[in-house]
Amino acid sequence: MQLYPFHEGDPPESGATTQRGFLRSISFELLGLLLFVAIFHLFSAIGPALDETGLLLLSLVMAVIPALLWLAVFYRIDRAEPEPKRLVLGVYLMGLLLMAALYQPLFGVVFAVESWLRAYGWSHLVGGVLVTGMASMAIVYAAVRIVVFGNPEFDERLDGIIYAVAAGLGVATVHNFVYVFQHGGVDLDVGSIRIVVNALGYGGVAGVLGYFIGQARFEKTPLFYLPAGVVLSAALLGLYFFLVEQTGSTGLRAEFWRQLLLGLLLTLLVMGAVSWLVRRANEETARVAQLAATGDRWEPKPVETASDRGE
Questions:
Q1: What is the DSSP code string of 138-156?
Q2: Is residue 85 part of a domain?
Q3: Which of 13, 95, 157, 229 is spaced 20 to 30 A from 53 at the CA atom?
Q4: Distance between CA atoms of 180 and 65, rounded to whole angstroms?
Q5: Closest alpha carbon to 135 in 147, 117, 155
Q6: Model pTM score
Q7: What is the Cβ-side half-sphere exposure of residue 203, based on CA atoms within 13 angstroms?
Q8: What is the extent of the structural domain holding 261?
Q9: What is the per-residue pLDDT for 206?
């Protein structure tokens, strides 16, 4: 098992280079999502021409595309030692299946969120953190833990982010499917924005939890470390959707575009923070490894005595 993000005998990759590549890939991904929305906005006139079944099928395809874009970009981030596609896809499907199995029991029966979540601003924020956020991030952690946490292919910290984002996108896909079915298909322009906003929220915040998972995989962490990561991610997810909903509370089409821009900005900020954390962690690992290697060849310096000085 590889304990460090570089091979023995090779110089570690520059943290700054890794960070620039990470942020560059995220920027291209966000541009791709904007292009996705723009395309469906331009062809929104197709929607009224479709029957109910056609619109529903097209909307379901729309619900999957942002997740596929995210997965493609995050897979390319790990260019030096890319993760097996089957594992990335497996984590995505596990997140999707777990959320699909638990969505109705949790949100429809146990917590009945539709009856109270959006009644007040405070209930939306609190419920978004303690119910939606906690359940979703717990599923993300469970998906990574079940599929790949003990796999030798999970061999660097960045992998924790890639796998967690894949699981988060599985969760987002289910939420998008629910959104599509609740509306019997969606407007191609407004619906595409909402689908992208969901993917940004669940995928981006899952990256924060992925940092905690990566640290726990390669460092000795306290017992509360991973639960704290789940709680922090849940809080960020609840805050993300609270801010997005407040931005578009009037329901006007212009407000949906403001939701999208806010979602893009928040995701870029979150991913920038995650990139910085990964860089710091990798630099610390490289420093410790270099000190250990130097220690193997270290010899104590002779202590100069009085006789050596001719005293």
A1: HHHHHHHHHHTTT-TT--S
A2: yes
A3: 95
A4: 14
A5: 117
A6: 0.83
A7: 32
A8: 15-290
A9: 96
Q: Is the dihedral of CA 97, 98, 99, 102 positive or negative?
A: positive
> Tokens standing for 122?
């405070």
Residues of the chain with pLDDT under 50: 1-15, 17, 297-300
Cβ contact 262:244 at 8 Å: yes
97-151 pLDDT tens trace: 999 999 999 999 999 998 999 888 899 999 999 999 999 999 999 999 999 999 9
| Residue indicated by tokens 């890319």 | 82
Q: Residue 294: what residue type?
A: T
Q: Is 225 left (phi over 0), alpha (psi -120 to 50) or beta?
A: alpha
* CA 256-126-169 angle, 5° bins: 55
Report the domain count for the chain: 1
Task: Let me know if residue 308 belongs to a domain.
Answer: no
Give the residue from 147, 269, 259, 281 showing the smallest Cα distance to 207.
269
Calpha distance 235→220 (Å, rounded): 25
Q: What are the residues whose beta carbons fall under 8 Å from the beta carbon of 214, sequence distance 6 or more?
A: 156, 157, 158, 159, 160, 161, 278, 281
Instruction: Please answer whether residues 218 and 283 qualify as being in contact, where contact means their C-beta atoms are separated by less than 8 angstroms.
Output: no
Q: What is the pLDDT of residue 205?
A: 95
pLDDT (0 to 100) of residue 31: 84
- Tell me the C-alpha distance between 165 and 208, whole Å: 9
**Cβ atoms of residues 264 and 30 within 8 Å:** yes
Output the six-digit token pair for 151.
Answer: 């796999």
Residue 48 in domain: yes
Structure tokens at 98: 């777990």
Assess if residue 300 is contained within a domain: no
